[in-house]
Amino acid sequence: MVIPEAARDAIDAAIGRYPEPRAALLPALHIVQRELGCVPLEAARELAAIFAVAPVEVLELLSFYNLFRVEPGGRHRVNVCTNLPCSLRGARALLRGLEAHLGVAAGETTRDGRITLGHEECLGACAWAPMLRIDGDYHENLDLEDAKRLLDGLE
Amino acid sequence: MYPRLPHVTGYLTEHVAEDDFVTLEGYRARGGWLAAERALREMSPEDVVDQVTASGLQGRGGAGFPTGQKWSFMPSDPDGPSYLVCNADESEPGSFKDRLLLERAPHKVLEGILIGAFATRAEKTFVYVRGEYSRAADVFESAVEECRTAGILGRNALGSGFGHDVVVTRGAGAYICGEETGLLESLEGRKGMPRKKPPYPAQVGAFGRPTTVNNVETLAHVPHIVANGPEWFRGLGTEESPGTTLFGVSGHVSRPGLYELPLGTRLDEIVFEHAGGVPGGRKVKAVIPGGLSMPALPAGQLDVPMANESLRERGTFLGTGGIIVMDDTTCMVRVACVTTWFFRDESCGQCTQCREGTGWLHKLCERIERGAGEDADLDVLRDVSASMEGQTICAFADAAAWPVQGFLRHFREDFEAHVRLAKCPFPASFEL
Amino acid sequence: MPTITVDGRQVRVEEGRTILQALDDAGLLMDGVDVPHYCWHPGLAVDGSCRLCQVEVEGLGGLQIACNTPVADGMVVHTTSDRVRDARAGVMELLLVNHPLDCPICDQAGECKLQDYAFEYGAAGARTREPRRALQKRVPLGPTIVLDQERCILCRRCVRFCREVTGTGELGIANRGDRSVIETFPGVELDNPYSMNVADICPVGALTTRDFRFKVRVWFLEERPGICTGCARGCNVWLGVAHGEVQRYTARRNDRVNGSWICDAGRLSYREIAAPDRLRTPLVRGEDGVLRSAELDVALDAATRRLRELIDAKGPGMLAALASAHLTNEDLAALRRLLDRLGVDAAGLTLVMGEGDDLLVHPEKGANAAGARAAGFGDPAPILERLRGGGLEGLIVLGHDLLHPTLLGSPDALDDLATLIVLDTHRSELERVADVVIPGRHLAEKGGTLVNAEGVVQEVAAAVEPPFPATAQAEVLDRLAEALAPRLAQAGGDG
């Protein structure tokens, strides 16, 4: 079993909040990803058993929703919003700059396993563009130097 | 202090600068929860629906459907549970208003939820918050917990005898879950693929039960309508589009941000007076008035009131009120590339026209931008976007087609210049 | 019953159906009223995603998909208007944007709905210059099915089949939008007793069976109606015939019998027809005890002589017949005539019982078990009892089902018989002890009438000629009866 006991309890609790157990599948994926850093195939198989669905249905969710991943990637996830409001204010130039700074292309992880760099669709921070998200926290109104400093400060 | 406050506030955003407004105590101290008390204790569900109908409140999630009418579709004597769903999956590029309300006025949204749930006889509300808004979800969950403890939610909400609970569900990154039936699928633990209609959510919604889906901002207006009456609400905004809304202004403006203004405020007033116009002495080239899925307007057409009845005449819509401003350096083909990329990325892939059309539109725009376009490509863009319009399960394909149609309608010369010169003629434009 | 008008034609429809279902119910769909469709399938729930079946409904603005628009009395539907044709052309153009157009090497070519509808509704030339999706061309989904991701148009019929019909759920769709592909979970193959139906319902060449892949171009196939003889369901099949041989079975829709499906075992049972162990020649045991091939006339003479000697010596009471549940009503009637003429009462049905399921597979392994019972061929136990106890001198056996472990198991108990006449389609252990063995025809080679487990009487015609001389069982039996008749007439006179 790769899903730890505590996570299983949290999943059970989530199941109790909905009229149908399956509704807790997305919450369960969040719980597993928080515990394990990703949702590996073995965990997907275990979730399928818990929710009595075909394993491929869990796999479908993992590739349909952007936030889930089947491999852990870097210790930090840095995502630059590249949608129009951010792009108008230089988001793509920022992303290029960060690619050069880290020596990886968007979608890749630095060799030291520190950062997985990516781009993301609109994060609802359009007025404070460009911006990026580091592990869930927003950093707004950035220029390239700000952003480099932020990334350099990551463990 | 919270760093991202509205530049202009109104009844919705009053107090959002004050940190304790997110707490139950702080909200109560500023008159909060009185409207819900009144609705639940002194009014019938029909009274509430009537008031909201009379107010003329239109949904603020993009479609602008009359809220009272939507509520009236719900069964008055259901044979089982009914549900309210609060659509907090704000994902429309250019929109960031619901995030503010969730993070800075959670009790106001909750109060609207409780009133709406009472009016629609819903036993539970599911608040579906987009996964990226984890902070908003945390803040909102704390508010829910406070209300449970205080007896505002629970078996006997506000001592009224009406039982209600609120569950916060986090999305996981898919724009399509903002579509109400895509949201319901996602809420039920599936891929957010919109449902074919009929049946409609008021008949078969969440978990097979009658369900109303309302946007965050829509619900936030409700306590004010109950507190001040429909006449007061109708005194704001236009005859057809009453009330204020939260306009989000982004792109090439001096003061990007949120502005709570009455519906019907002119677009040029918002862009030039409130948001300070385009910086650096440049001129406006284009403005998207309602989030990325709405057709853009050229600089000469900004003298339009921001209300659907007026925008419709210009071939566009209010959408979510996300105003994206582009200056005269901007290459509209690049804008089309970014736009079509987004819709290609986010199409759920269910309907043929949307799945294949979004990809084709994007490839066409990219090729034109690269300088490899032909005259005929412009016709293909037009035809493909026409094939996508009005023919799919949900409005996503329209949302993907309309902006392209808008770019072609008003900025065709940008496309033609790319073809003629076999390169992008806007070297100073934002980087792709 | 509400009535709707479709292209000026009045159609009476059942309440609660959608336009497409109503047309299908009336037998008009694609046979009088052309409403092309990909995702809709009569055996699956309405999906509404391919958007090809759009029609115009008076009073409803815009185009409606026929598969999900409920009928209402007085509804007026147009399926051939310019608007409808334009919309279909739009959908077809979009479906072809990413299609590899590899028809020359595609197994589906010739029976491909994408080809058909593109021809009917599409434009002559492609307007796309963009690179098409480059995906996997050969993904084995399991032991029976291979996927070509590039050809897939994502109608999801296969995915829904595995969820709605078999409940096995092996298939899903990975990713979103135009990156969507059919997928399985690593280590969980598409492997269920009905898996090959997904190839039948795949409207394009994305899913093909390993069995039929690259075997023969479908335009060389002539599709002839047949019935699977594997079990008492009597599923309807199409026999794909080329070069005089049955190359495949596919499911033939019959909502009273098998819906749109057949099981994999039944589908592959076409192989029995041209199997290497087919009985190709009559066999007669000589004085030296060796079984040798013989002409049919010789074999019939030998059988006649042996039966006559037996009845003369021991009377008809020492003779019995066992019939297989694969025989047609016509075969069984001929057997009954023969037995009546011989005065033989002991007749039984060698019905093999096996596994069944909730969908189609019936535990009675034989397509005409009900027909045989109705013709008076019942429980074989008394005959088997007598065989084991040496209480019989002669036996006529049709088919070799009695060798099944649940019946006789081995031919040893037949060793002591004075006379054993076998009519069969395939070789078996019976040859060890038989005196005369006569080859018969497979259902596909003779046609006939069968009664399935629900009592549905079904008749099919012969679809192929056997590649060796074989005579329908009924004819063999009638010839035997004919040959034995003078003796019988005389015996009758004696009585």
Q: What is the structure about, briefly put?
A:
By secondary structure, chain B is an alpha/beta fold. In chain B, 43% of the residues lie in helices and 12% in strands. Chain C has helices at 19-25, 82-97, 113-121, 157-165, 197-201, 264-268, 296-314, 329-342, 369-374, 381-388, 443-446, 473-494; strands at 3-6, 9-12, 54-57, 63-65, 76-78, 139-140, 145-147, 171-174, 181-184, 207-209, 222-227, 236-242, 245-251, 283-285, 291-293, 319-324, 346-350, 352-353, 364-365, 394-398, 419-424, 436-439, 448-451, 457-460.
Architecture overview:
The complex is a heterotrimer of chains A (about 160), B (about 425) and C (about 500). With about 160 residues, chain A is of the alpha+beta class. Chain A has helices at about 5-15, 25-35, 40-50, 55-65, 85-90, 90-100, 145-150, and strands at about 75-80, 115-120, 130-135, 135-140. Chain A has two domains: about 5-65, Arc Repressor Mutant, subunit A; about 75-150, Glutaredoxin (3-Layer(aba) Sandwich), CATH 3.40.30.10. In chain A, about 50% of the residues are buried. With about 425 residues, chain B is an alpha/beta fold. Helices cover about 45% and strands about 10% of the residues of chain B. In chain B, strand 7 and strand 8 (about 295-300) form a beta hairpin. The longest helix of chain B is centred in the last third of the chain and has 26 residues, at about 395-420. Among the domains of chain C are: about 5-80, Ubiquitin-like (UB roll) (Roll), CATH 3.10.20.740; about 285-495, Rossmann fold (3-Layer(aba) Sandwich), CATH 3.40.50. Helices cover about 25% and strands about 20% of the residues of chain C. In chain C, helix 7 runs parallel beside helix 12 (about 475-495) and helix 8 (about 330-340) packs parallel to helix 12. The termini of chain C are far apart. Classes of the chains: A alpha+beta (about 160), B alpha/beta (about 425), C alpha+beta (about 500). Chains in contact: A-B, A-C, B-C. At the A-B interface, helix 2, helix 4, helix 5 and helix 6 of A face strand 3, strand 5, strand 9 and helix 12 of B.
Fraction of residues in H or I helices of chain A: 40-55%
Distance between the termini of chain C: 65 Å
Along the chain, the helix and strand elements of chain A come as HHHHEHHEEEH
**CATH homology superfamily of the largest domain in chain A:** Glutaredoxin
How many H/I helical runs of chain C?
A: 12
Instruction: Assign the CATH architecture of the largest domain in chain A.
Output: 3-Layer(aba) Sandwich
Radius of gyration of chain C: 28 Å
Per CATH, the class of the largest domain in chain A reads Alpha Beta
Strand tally of chain A is 4
- Largest interface, C-beta closer than 8 angstroms, per-chain residues: A-B, 46 and 60 residues
Largest sheet of chain A: 4 strands, mixed
> How many extended strands of chain C?
24
Task: List low-pLDDT spans of chain A.
Answer: none
